[in-house]
Design a protein that fits this description.
heterodimer, A: 373 residues, mainly alpha, Amino acid/polyamine transporter I, two-stranded antiparallel ribbon, B: 399 residues, alpha/beta, GMP Synthetase, Chain A, domain 3, 9-stranded mixed sheet, 4-stranded mixed sheet, 13 strands, globular, transport (chain A), Spore germination protein KB (chain A), germination (chain A), transmembrane helix (chain A), transmembrane (chain A)
C-alpha cells in the first residue's frame, strides 16, 4: 500500500484547491466585491470540508467511492459511486481545456490543440504509472518554488505601484444578492467543496484521522488566503471592468508590472504559475478517477486503466468545449448547477444523514441488547 | 512490462528529438520587421495604417550610419487587422508588433471615435500593453510617424520618452496606456484624455535624412496639450495650463514648475518635487460636490525679483501666493471641462465611491449635473528648500 506523509497531504490539498483559480480569478461575476465572495466561499468551504472529513471518520477504512455502497446498500450505492470517478474524469478534461485555451491564446498561438494536450498528458500519464507517492513527492519539491513565485509576483506588483485601493470602492453597491449568487454553488464548490475528491487519498496518509482533519482544514485556510490575496491584487490592480472582461485576469495584472522599465513583461511568470497548478490539479483528477474505477471494477492493478483513461482524456480535452466562450459559460452557468450541486452537496449530505440514522439505530440496538443482559 | 535497453535508448532519443525542435510558432529575428510606431488614420471606408519599422543595420551601435534609421510603410483596409495584414504586400518581412512604443491616431479619426480601432489593439495577443497612445494634433498620424528625430534614431522612441519625461518634469502631458483609456471609455463617471503630438517647422523635410543632418532640425515632433474626449470622440484640446490643472486633479504630478509674480515686479519660480491629490465626492443638498485636496512639497528654484528669503514671513507669503495660483490653475481647468460638458477628472467615479446609491440616479443626467457640480479646491504647498543660495543678489542690483 502506498503511503504519503502529512506534509505531502497539505501540499496536494493546497495545489488542488488553488488550482487554476489563480489565473481565472474567483467570483468575477460579483465584480469588485469578489473578495467578499472569496471570504464567504472559504467559510462555507471549511464547513463542507469538515462534513466530508466527518463522513470519512464515520466510514473508517473506506474511500469516497466505497462510502455509498457501504451506507446505501449495494443496489443504490454502487451506481451513485460510479458517478464520482466519471465526474473526476470530466473535471480532468476541463482542466485540459483550461490549459489548451490559455496556452493557445497567450504563448503558443499557432500550435494546434492536440500538440499541447498530448504532451501534457504524456507527462501526467507517466506520473500515474509512478503512483501517488511520486506525485506527492513532486508536489513537495514544487511547492516552495510555487510559493516563492507567488510571493515574488506579489512583491513585484507592490513595488511597481499599480494597485489602487480606490478600485475596491464602493463596497456592496448592488447589495448581497450577487455575492450570494456567485458564492453558491460556484464559489464554494470551486476548489473548496471539490476537495471531496481528496477523500480518495485520506486513507493513504500515514497519520491518525485527527491529524488529517487538522492538516486538511489548515490547507483549506491557507489556499483560501492565497486566493484572497490574488483576488484583492487583481481587483485593485486592473479594476472591476477588466476583472470582468479579461479572459485571464491574473495574466493581465502581471503584464502590467513595470519596474523602472527593466523588469516588465512578466507574462511567462504567470503562465508558469498556471502550468504548475494546472499540472497538479490534472494529475490528481486523473489519479482519483483511475483509483475510483479500479476500486469499483475490482481490477487488481490500476496500471491497466491508465492507458484507456488517458485516451479518454485526450478525447475530452478536444471535445469538452469547442471555443473559449462556451468553455467559460459551461464553467459558470451549467456545470456547477447540474453536476456540483448534486454530487458535492446533495449526495454527501444525504449520505451523512443516512449514516447518522444507521448509527443511531445500531447504538439503540446495542443499548437494548445491553439492557436485556 | 519489461523494457530492454535498446528500446529504452531509442525512446529517450525520440523524446529528446521532440524536445529539441523548439517552439511551434517560432519566428527568427531575421524574418521579422520590428514595428516601433503605428499611425492610424481614417479613410472613407476603413483605416490607413502607417507602420514605422526599424532598419536593424542602421541602429546598430558601433556602425556609423549613413542611411535612414527607420522606414515607414502604409496600407489601407476595412478593418485594423486587414490593414495590418495588407502591409505584407509592401513590407519586406513579417510585421512584428510586440515592440510598438507609440500608437498615434489622426485627429480626424479621433473626432469620429476611437472605440472601434481600439478593439484590435487590446485583442491581438502580440501587442503588449505598454505603448503610449497619442493624438496627432491637426495632422494625419502618418505625417508624425514619418518624421526622423535626432538623438533617438527611432522617432517612436523619441515620442514615448518625451511624453514620459515631460509628464514627470513639466506636467502638461500624460502617458495614456491602453487599459486606462478603455477603462475611462466604458466608465460612466470618467471621460478619457490623450496627449497630443504635433510637428513644428517645415514638415516637408521631416521624413528626409537631411532633417537630422542639421544642428537645428527643421522638423520637430512636439508633445503637448491634452485632447479632451466625450465618449470616444475628441471634442477639444486643453492648453498647457489647463492640462497641468488636469494633472493636479488626477494626482498625476511628479514634478513641475510654476511661477508667481513678486510685488515689486519680476517673477519667482517654484519647483514642485512631490505632489499628492485626494479627490472626494459627496452629495450635499441633493447636489454633487467635489473636494480636491492638493498637498505638495516645493523648492524655490529661481528668484528674479528683490525679495528677502531669510525671513520666514516671506516664505509664508510665497506659499500663500503659490497656493492661490495653483488653485486658479485647477479651477480654470475645471471651468474649461464644465464648459465642454465632459467629466475628464473622474468626478463621477469619486461620487460613485462615496455615494453609490445616489450615483445610480445621478449618472443618467451626469453630463448636465457635472456642469452644476460644486468644486472646492484646497491647496497646501510647503516650501522646503530655497536652493544653494539663501538670499538673492537681485536686490542689490535693482536698488
Amino acid at each position: 500500500m502506498e503511503r504519503i506523509s502529512q506534509y505531502q497531504l497539505f501540499v496536494l490539498t493546497v495545489f488542488f484547491q488553488v488550482g487554476t483559480t489563480i489565473i481565472f480569478g474567483f467570483g468575477a461575476a460579483a465584480g469588485r466585491d469578489a473578495w467578499i465572495v472569496t471570504i464567504i466561499s472559504l467559510l462555507v468551504g471549511i464547513f463542507v470540508i469538515s462534513i466530508y472529513l466527518f463522513l470519512s471518520y464515520l466510514n473508517p477504512g473506506l474511500t469516497l467511492v466505497e462510502w455509498f455502497p457501504a451506507q446505501f446498500g449495494k443496489w443504490i450505492g454502487t451506481p451513485i459511486a460510479w458517478l464520482y470517478p466519471l465526474l473526476f474524469l470530466y473535471e480532468g478534461g476541463r482542466i485540459l481545456n483550461d490549459i489548451k485555451y490559455l496556452t493557445t491564446t497567450i504563448i503558443l498561438v499557432d500550435t494546434p490543440f492536440l500538440a499541447i494536450i498530448l504532451f501534457f498528458l504524456l507527462v501526467v500519464a507517466y506520473l500515474q504509472y509512478c503512483g501517488i507517492e511520486v506525485i506527492a513527492r513532486i508536489g513537495e519539491i514544487f511547492f516552495p518554488y510555487f510559493l516563492v513565485m507567488i510571493l515574488g509576483s506579489v512583491v513585484l506588483i507592490l513595488v511597481s505601484d499599480i494597485l489602487r485601493v480606490d478600485n475596491l470602492l464602493p463596497v456592496l453597491k448592488n447589495g448581497w444578492k450577487p455575492i450570494l449568487a456567485s458564492t453558491f454553488p460556484l464559489g464554494a464548490s470551486q476548489g473548496f467543496a471539490q476537495s471531496l475528491e481528496l477523500a480518495m487519498i485520506w486513507l493513504l496518509v500515514s497519520t491518525s484521522h485527527k491529524e488529517i482533519v487538522k492538516t486538511t482544514l489548515f490547507a483549506t485556510v491557507f489556499s483560501g488566503l492565497l486566493i484572497l490575496i490574488t483576488v484583492l491584487m487583481i481587483i485593485t490592480g486592473i479594476g472591476e471592468f477588466f476583472y470582468k472582461i479579461e479572459s485571464f485576469p491574473m495574466f493581465a495584472l502581471v503584464s502590467k508590472v513595470n519596474i523602472g522599465g527593466i523588469i516588465k513583461n512578466l507574462d511567462a511568470f504567470a503562465v508558469l504559475l498556471f502550468i504548475i497548478s494546472a499540472f497538479f490539479k490534472l494529475s490528481l483528477h486523473l489519479f482519483f478517477a483511475i483509483r475510483g474505477f479500479q476500486i469499483l471494477t475490482k481490477v487488481e492493478s490500476s496500471r491497466k486503466l491508465i492507458i484507456p483513461i488517458t485516451i479518454i482524456s485526450i478525447y475530452l480535452g478536444y471535445s469538452v468545449s469547442s471555443n473559449y466562450e462556451e468553455h467559460i459559460k459551461v464553467a459558470i452557468e451549467v456545470f456547477p448547477y447540474n453536476l456540483w450541486i448534486m454530487l458535492l452537496w446533495i449526495l454527501p449530505f444525504a449520505l451523512l444523514i443516512v449514516t447518522l440514522i444507521k448509527r443511531a439505530i445500531k447504538n439503540r440496538k446495542k443499548e437494548m441488547a445491553q439492557a436485556k443482559e | 512490462m519489461k523494457i530492454n535497453k535498446k528500446t529504452a535508448l531509442l525512446s529517450i532519443a525520440f523524446f529528446i528529438l521532440i524536445g529539441l525542435t523548439g517552439c511551434w510558432s517560432a519566428h527568427e529575428l531575421s524574418e521579422l520587421a520590428i514595428a516601433t510606431g503605428l499611425g492610424i488614420d481614417k479613410t472613407e471606408d476603413g483605416y490607413r495604417i502607417s507602420v514605422q519599422f526599424v532598419n536593424p543595420g542602421e541602429i546598430a551601435a558601433k556602425k556609423a550610419s549613413s542611411g535612414v534609421p527607420i522606414s515607414v510603410h502604409t496600407a489601407e483596409g476595412r478593418s485594423m487587422l486587414e490593414a495590418v495584414r495588407k502591409l505584407t504586400t509592401t513590407a519586406p518581412r513579417r510585421v512584428y508588433l510586440a515592440h510598438v512604443r507609440v500608437i498615434i491616431f489622426g485627429e480626424e479619426l479621433a473626432k469620429e471615435g476611437l472605440r472601434k480601432p481600439l478593439d484590435f489593439l487590446s485583442r491581438d495577443h502580440e501587442m503588449r500593453a505598454d505603448f503610449v497612445i497619442a493624438i496627432a494634433k491637426g495632422l494625419k498620424a502618418e505625417d508624425v510617424i514619418k518624421v526622423i528625430a535626432p538623438m533617438e534614431k527611432v522617432s517612436a522612441n523619441k515620442i514615448f520618452t518625451s511624453i514620459e519625461t515631460s509628464e514627470k518634469n513639466w506636467a502638461p502631458t500624460k502617458i495614456v496606456l491602453l487599459d486606462e483609456l478603455i477603462e475611462s471609455l466604458v466608465s460612466d463617471g470618467k471621460e478619457p484624455v490623450i496627449t497630443g503630438v504635433y510637428l513644428t517647422g517645415n514638415s516637408e523635410l521631416g521624413g528626409n535624412i537631411k532633417n537630422i543632418q542639421q544642428v537645428n532640425t527643421p522638423t520637430k515632433i512636439k508633445s503637448d496639450y491634452l485632447a479632451v474626449f466625450k465618449g470616444d470622440k475628441l471634442i477639444d484640446w486643453l492648453d498647457e495650463s489647463e492640462s497641468k490643472g488636469f494633472n493636479y486633479i488626477t494626482d498625476n504630478i511628479t514634478s513641475t514648475v510654476g511661477f508667481i509674480e513678486c510685488e515689486g515686479g519680476g517673477t519667482l519660480t517654484i519647483e514642485t518635487i512631490r505632489s499628492k491629490t485626494k479627490l472626494e465626492g459627496a452629495i450635499e443638498n441633493e447636489k454633487p460636490k467635489i473636494k480636491i485636496y492638493v498637498t505638495a512639497e516645493s523648492n524655490i528654484g529661481d528668484v528674479e525679483c528683490p525679495i528677502d528669503l531669510s525671513k520666514s514671513k516671506t516664505i509664508k507669503d510665497i506659499e500663500k501666493k503659490f497656493n492661490e495660483k495653483t488653485k486658479d490653475i485647477i479651477m480654470s481647468s475645471v471651468e474649461k471641462a464644465k464648459e465642454l460638458g465632459t467629466d475628464i477628472y473622474g468626478f463621477g467615479e469619486a461620487i460613485n465611491r462615496s455615494e453609490p446609491k445616489k450615483w445610480e440616479d445621478l449618472k443618467k443626467k451626469w453630463d448636465e449635473e457635472f456642469k452644476n457640480t460644486e468644486v472646492v479646491v484646497k491647496v497646501d504647498l510647503k516650501i522646503r528648500r530655497v536652493g544653494t543660495i539663501a538670499e538673492s543678489f537681485q536686490e542689490e542690483e535693482d536698488q
